[in-house]
Amino acid sequence: MCDPAVSSFLTQTLCAHGGRLGLRELQENIGLSALQLENTLSAAGPRRFLVLEGGQVVLAVTDVRVCVRKECDGCERLHLCKLHLMGRCHLGPSSCKYSHDIMNAENKKVLKKHDLSGLSENELQVLLLQNDAFFLPDACQLYNKKGSHCMQQNNCNKLHVCQHFLKGKCKFPRCINSHNLLDDHALRVLETVGIDGKIASNFQAIYDYKHVEFNREQKKVNSGPNHDFEFDRGRNSPCLTSQLNPTIHLMLSVHNYRNDNWKKPAVRRIKEQKTTLETVQCMLDASPSEAVLLIQSSHAGPSSTVPTQSRDRLPTGVGDKDKGKKDSSSDEASKDNKTDNCDEICLFYVWKYCKNKDKCRSVHYHLPYKWEIHDGLYWKELSMMEEIEKAYCDPKNSSMPSKNINFQTMTCSSSLVRRLSTPSSVTKPTFLLTTQWIWYWKNNQDKWIEYGEQEEGNSTTSPSSAIIENLYQADPCAIVPFQAGQQQYELNFKEMIQTNTHFKTQRPVCRRPKFVSSEDVQKIKTGSQRDSSIPNQTCPSHWDASALPDFGYKAVVIHNTTSEYNEIKQLFHQTMKNYSILNIQRIQNPSLWKVFQWQKEKMKRENGGKEVQEKRLFHGADVTSMETICSQNFDWRICGSNGTNYGKGIYFARDACYSHTYCQATLQGHFMFVARVLVGDYVKGNAAFVRPPMKCADKLWLYDSCVDDEFNPAVFVVFEKHQIYPEYIIEYKE
C-alpha cells in the first residue's frame, strides 16, 4: 500500500500542473528517484494514478464525487456548489443554496478519507473535473435513444456521447454510440460550461480505462460461450459488425501542454476504422496496464499525424512470438527520435560538452532553441530556424505567413510544430544560454507592453518579467495578484489574461522568449568568463550552495555550534525552556525565496519606500503537511483549519509555547516551523475576514495582516502566502 502522505503529495503536484504530467517531469517535481516513483505509482494503483503512453505520462485519478442530490441528509460525497467550483456561480455563498465552503467539517472528512486534505480549491477543481461526470453537460437523450441520431445534429447543446460510458458502465466493448469527448461537437459543448480540451482529454483517458476495466469485470461475471458476443441494444443485427469508437491518441508534448493548445487542439480525430475481434478480445484479456496501451494503439491509424510509439513497435508483453522484439526497420529512426517526448535542450551540450552523450535524456543541439515539424512518424528539423525564432520572439506575431506557421495552434499547414528550448533562466540563474522569457500585456492601442516597463505617458510600473516568470515556474496554473500604482490586478497564467479587480477590464497576456541568434550564442560561449558553477547569488549567502535544487527544496541540518543555530534556539527557549532541541533544519527552496523577496519589494514600494516589518514567527503543523509546506508554502485551507478567530488566513505565533499546542506528537518527538513573515501594517482581526480590511475607505490600500491585539500582538494572521517563507523546522522533545 502506498503512503497516504506521498499519494496526497503526488496528487497535489499533478493537479497543480493541470491533472497530468510526464513521468520525468513528475519525478523532478517531487524529488523521488525513478525506481521510487515507479514503486509508489504501482503501490497506489490505477484508482489513484493512471499511467499512460507506455509508462511516460501520469494522470491523477480519484473516487471522490460531488453529491448530485438537491437535498441530502448526509452521504460520503462532497457537498458543494458545482457552479462555484467551476467559477460560474453568481449568487454568492449567502444566497446560493449549495455550499461554497470546500473546507467545512463534512467535506474535510470526505477529503481526509481519500487522502486529499492537502489540495487547494484550484487543485481540487482540476481533480474533480477530470474524474466526475457530474461536471459535464448532459448527454443528449435523443442521441442515446434514437439510434445515435439527434434532429438538431451539431446545433444540439448536449453531448452526443454514450450516457453509460460517462457513468463508466457501458457494457458494449464496441458500442454504436460515440465514446469520444474530443470531436468538434463535444469540445464545443464542453467549452460552453468552461471545460477546455485539456481537461476533456484527461477525462477521456480515464474513462477509456474505466470502460475496459468494466467490460473485463463483466466478462468474468458472464463467462461462457453465450456471452462472448453481445448484441446491439434493441437491434436485430449483432454488435460484432459494428465498429469500436476510436479515442483520440494524444500527443503529450510538455511544450504544447503548457501553451494551452488544447483550446484549439492540434490533435485530430482519427478516422474510424474496423477493429478486429482479436483486438477487442485482447483488450478484455490484457492486464490493466496493457489494456491502456491497447486502447491507444488499436485506434491509431496510418492517417494519424500524431506521434505514437505503438506505430513503431508492439509494447512489451503484448503479442506472442514477437514479444519484446523491436521493429528493426525503425532502429535508426528511433535513434534519431529518442527525444520525441522531451522538449528540453541540454544546457551542457549547448555550452560545451555533455558527458552523458547518447544517454542524455535532453535534446543535443547547438542552439538554445530548435523548431521541429512532425511528418506523421517523427519530428524533423525545420529549415530557416533563426528566421522562425525571430518571428516567434516578437509578441505581435501570431503567425509566420511566409512559412505557413501558426504560433497560436503550433501548426504548419496541417502538421504539428513544436519549439524545444533550454530551461527557463529563472530556474537555473547561474547558467548561461538558458531561455529568458519575457512577459507582455496588450494596451488599448493593441501594442504589446513588456511587464516592468513604463507605458508611454504613464509613470506606473508593474512587476518585471523575471518576477512573473518565477511565479509561473512555481505554479503555471496560478492566479497572481499584483499592484501597479493604485490599481489592483490579477494575472491568470492558465487563461493568459490580466484583470483589473476593480473595473473588471481584461487584457491579453503573452509570454515569448528573448531572441538569441547563432552569432550571439558564439559570442556568449567565447566571450564570457562566467562559469556555470558560480553559486546562486539571489539566495542568502549562508545557504549551502551544494543544496540548491532547481525545483522543490532541500532540508539542511544546521550544526549546533553555529550562531545561526543558537539564534533559533534562543528564540525557541524563550517560552519552551523545559524542552530540548534534537535538531534544526534549514529549508532551502530557491523558488519560494525569490517569490518572498519579490513580495517584500512590492510591499516596500507600496509603503512609500519604507522597510516592511518582518518577523520570525512559529507555526505548529500536522506532520503530514510539512512536506507540502516546504515545497509549496503554507495554505490557509489547511494551516488555518484549527481556528479562525481573527480571520480565515494562516496563523503564526510570537511564542513557541502557543504553537506547541498545535504540534502533533510523533515517536521521535515534536516538529515546529519557524517562518519569516512580512507582517507589515496590521490591525485587529475578525472571524469574518477573508482578507485584511482597507486602511481607508477612499483608497484600495489594505492592511498587510491581522493580529489578536494591536498593542501587544502574540498571534498574527496572514492571508497572502507570498508574505511567508518557511525557514526552519525544529525537532524537539520534552
Automatic annotation (TrEMBL):
Compartments, as annotated in UniProt: Cytoplasm; Nucleus
GO biological process entries: positive regulation of mRNA catabolic process; positive regulation of type I interferon production; response to virus
Location of the PARP catalytic domain: 539-734
Domain C3H1-type residue range list: 80-103, 161-182
Biased composition (Basic and acidic residues): 310-338
Record field: compositional bias (Polar residues): 299-309
InterPro entries linked to this entry: ARTD-AVP, Poly(ADP-ribose)pol_cat_dom, WH-like_DNA-bd_sf, WWE_dom, WWE_dom_sf, ZAP_HTH, Zfn-CCCH_PARP12, Znf_CCCH
Keyword Ribonucleoprotein: no
A Pfam family it matches: HTH_53
UniProtKB keywords: Cytoplasm, Metal-binding, Nucleus, Phosphoprotein, Repeat, Zinc, Zinc-finger
Ranges for region Disordered: 299-338
Record-annotated WWE domain positions: 425-511
Any single GO CC term annotated in Swiss-Prot or TrEMBL for this entry: cytoplasm
ZnF start-end (C3H1-type): 80-103, 161-182
GO molecular-function terms, A-Z: NAD+ poly-ADP-ribosyltransferase activity; NAD+-protein mono-ADP-ribosyltransferase activity; RNA binding; zinc ion binding
Family: Belongs to the ARTD/PARP family.
Name by which UniProt lists this protein: PAR12 polymerase
